[in-house]
Structure formats: structure tokens, C-alpha cells
Recover the amino acids of this structure.
């Protein structure tokens, strides 16, 4: 089945550009568009969507709050935050709100398509190391998303899972973690999957965010 995409942006010209790129792909389909976040939320009530491309700054309801509301739904679509600026604190608030990643609006078409496919398959678009660097800068000023109570769930992890979680939070890939712990990549992938399930997280980006919020990792990427 084609990946069902919703475009959410108040700039018609930008939506048109994205639509042209996505419509040319045999594995993607634009099923909905919205000029603001509230319209997007209303549309999701009657339209099945796999991936939402969400602008940050829009009238009525900003993209961060919309992302938070969407991700709080049962079986929500994945959300990709769109931002004009590489260091836009709103985009990082979006990560805390549940987005699977963020992208610049002037991203090359090939990267946009790759990102949509990655998010749809369950991966995060933003590399954990990049997220970590950005959180180093923005975590002191970002509002809480209420994840702190989940700290007790970290205690449910096995010693090995906790080791893997800390390495994920420090930006290491599965291959790098496998080398560090002398494990196979398949084993590391299994551990990461169990960590996400036990902590109720969607992807590796959310692992990084939780590690910062609970103090397991401090600014600079060091284990707490």
C-alpha cells in the first residue's frame, strides 16, 4: 500500500511544491492537506494518514501543540516537523511532543522522500547524535512534556537494556553499540525494541529526549 501523507502548512505554494514531489512517487499518496493545525486535527478524525508533514508556525494552533494532540491519539500517524531554520526551538519542542523527527523546508527532494519512508517504517529521521547536540542547546528552555513520571519505568529495564539505552541516548548507532558491548547488531536491535516497548516510546529520538529529561544523560551527552 502507498504511504498516506498529509501536508500541513499555511503556505499554499510550499504545499504545492511538496505535492508535486510526492505525487511522482509510486509508493506515496497525498490523502489530505490543511492550511493550519486545527484543520489538520479535524481532518484526521475522518481520514486515515500514515505520515504528517507538519509546519511549526501557523495561525490558530502552532505545529508543536498540534503534534502533541495528534501523538496523544490512539494509533496516531507519524509526524515530521517542518522548520525554516536549522536551530528553531519550536522544532525541538516538537520532538518532545512526540514527533519522529524534523526537517528543513528547503530539504532536497531525495532527502524528503527518504525521510518519509524512514518514518513510515518506524525509524527516526533525526540522527540521535544530532538530536543530542540540539538538546544540549535547547533542553534548558524547552517546556516539560510530562515525561518525568516515566523515570520509574527505566527501573524495569534489565542491566543490559539500561546499558543499551544510555548508549542510544549518547548518539551511538546499533553498529557502534554492538562493537562497544561485543554483541551482534541483531541483538542490539532486539534490545532497542524492548526498551521502546517498556518505556512506551516511539523511536530512538524519544529515547534521547527521555534520557535528558530524567537526568540519565546530561548536556554534552555524558551519562548521569
Amino acid at each position: 500500500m502507498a504511504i498516506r501523507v498529509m501536508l500541513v502548512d499555511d503556505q499554499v505554494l510550499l504545499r504545492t511544491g511538496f505535492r508535486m514531489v510526492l505525487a511522482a512517487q509510486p509508493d506515496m499518496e497525498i490523502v489530505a492537506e490543511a492550511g493550519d493545525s486545527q484543520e489538520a486535527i479535524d481532518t484526521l478524525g475522518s481520514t486515515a494518514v500514515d505520515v504528517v508533514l507538519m509546519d511549526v508556525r501557523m495561525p490558530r494552533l502552532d505545529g508543536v501543540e498540534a503534534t502533541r494532540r495528534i501523538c496523544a491519539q490512539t494509533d496516531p500517524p507519524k509526524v515530521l516537523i517542518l522548520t525554516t531554520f536549522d536551530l528553531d526551538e519550536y522544532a525541538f519542542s516538537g520532538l518532545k511532543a512526540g514527533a519522529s523527527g524534523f526537517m528543513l523546508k528547503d530539504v532536497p527532494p531525495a532527502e524528503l522522500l527518504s525521510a518519509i519512508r524512514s518514518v513510515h517504517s518506524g525509524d527516526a529521521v533525526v540522527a540521535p547524535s544530532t538530536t543530542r547536540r540540539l538538546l544540549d542547546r535547547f533542553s534548558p528552555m524547552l517546556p516539560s512534556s510530562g515525561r518525568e513520571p516515566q523515570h520509574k519505568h527505566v527501573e524495569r529495564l534489565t542491566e543490559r537494556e539500561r546499558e543499551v539505552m544510555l548508549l542510544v541516548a549518547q548518539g551511538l548507532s546499533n553498529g557502534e553499540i554492538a562493537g562497544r558491548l561485543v554483541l551482534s547488531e541483531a541483538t542490539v536491535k532486539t534490545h532497542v525494541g524492548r526498551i521502546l516497548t517498556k518505556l512506551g516510546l516511539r523511536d530512538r529520538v524519544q529515547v534521547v529526549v527521555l534520557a535528558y529529561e530524567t537526568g540519565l544523560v546530561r548536556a554534552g551527552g555524558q551519562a548521569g
